[in-house]
Design a protein that fits this description.
Elements (H helix, E strand, L loop, with lengths): L1 H28 L3 E11 L11 E9 H10 L11 E6 L15 E6 L9 H13 L10 E7 L6 E6 L5 H15 L8 E4 H6 L9 E2 L1
Antiparallel strand pairs: 1-2, 1-3, 3-5, 4-6, 4-7, 5-6, 7-8
């Protein structure tokens, strides 16, 4: 346990050094630094490979300008083939339940009907990304780990992942702000699932812990 903690501390120090160097560079270039450094991941469902082999890191960024440069160059989520995912997570957190910063957490889940892929999906995903990089969740932005979009034949899903499922106050605050930014009506309810529950049951059967 002690060696694990030391490794975690070293990893954090390395990330902090990289962030400081990037901030200095951004200032020199006249760019606008974000509060956190973010990593974009892409998952392509190749059944001949193990799950982790299908997941690859696309790039990392830490300024507003670099985010927009990236967003304008990657394929829109609505154009991805079924079985693909995009994930945007804080640097140092991998987009999987097993990551130490995710395992006690959960997700606010938005499930879209098939026809919404061509009307709402890209707008919802962009709004989700802007909520993350803009730290829109007030005092609870530190609770946010990242977000995932799943492109599936039965219906697409978007989720914001948080680090502590038992933090009811923080989780519900994030859910309310997120719902507001997506422009969802009060009549539409969205649910929060703990990863521990989702891991033992399929997503549709997992227990909903909170609703806003």
């Amino acid at each position: 346990l002690l060696s694990q903690r030391r490794q975690e501390e070293r990893r954090r120090h390395r990330q902090q050094r990289v962030q400081q160097q990037e901030l200095l560079l951004a200032e020199r270039l006249g760019k606008h630094p974000l509060q956190n450094r973010w990593a974009l991941w892409f998952f392509k469902n190749d059944k001949s490979k193990m799950w982790q082999a299908n997941l690859r890191l696309v790039t990392k960024f830490s300024t507003v300008e670099d985010f927009w440069a990236l967003y304008s160059h990657i394929q829109l989520a609505s154009k991805l083939t079924s079985g693909c995912d995009y994930s945007l997570f804080k640097d140092g957190i991998e987009p999987m339940w097993e990551d130490s910063q995710n395992k006690r957490g959960g997700r606010w889940l938005i499930t879209l009907a098939k026809q919404q892929r061509h009307t709402e999906l890209d707008r919802f995903w962009l709004e989700t990304l802007l909520c993350l990089i803009g730290e829109m969740f007030d005092d609870y932005s530190d609770e946010v780990c990242g977000a995932v979009i799943n492109i599936r034949a039965k219906g697409d899903k978007i989720a914001i992942w948080t680090r502590e499922a038992e933090n009811q106050e923080g989780v519900t605050h994030i859910g309310r702000i997120y719902k507001e930014h997506l422009g969802l009506s009060q009549k539409v309810a969205i649910g929060y699932q703990a990863h521990a529950d989702t891991a033992t049951k399929s997503g549709s059967l997992a227990k909903t812990k909170f609703v806003v």
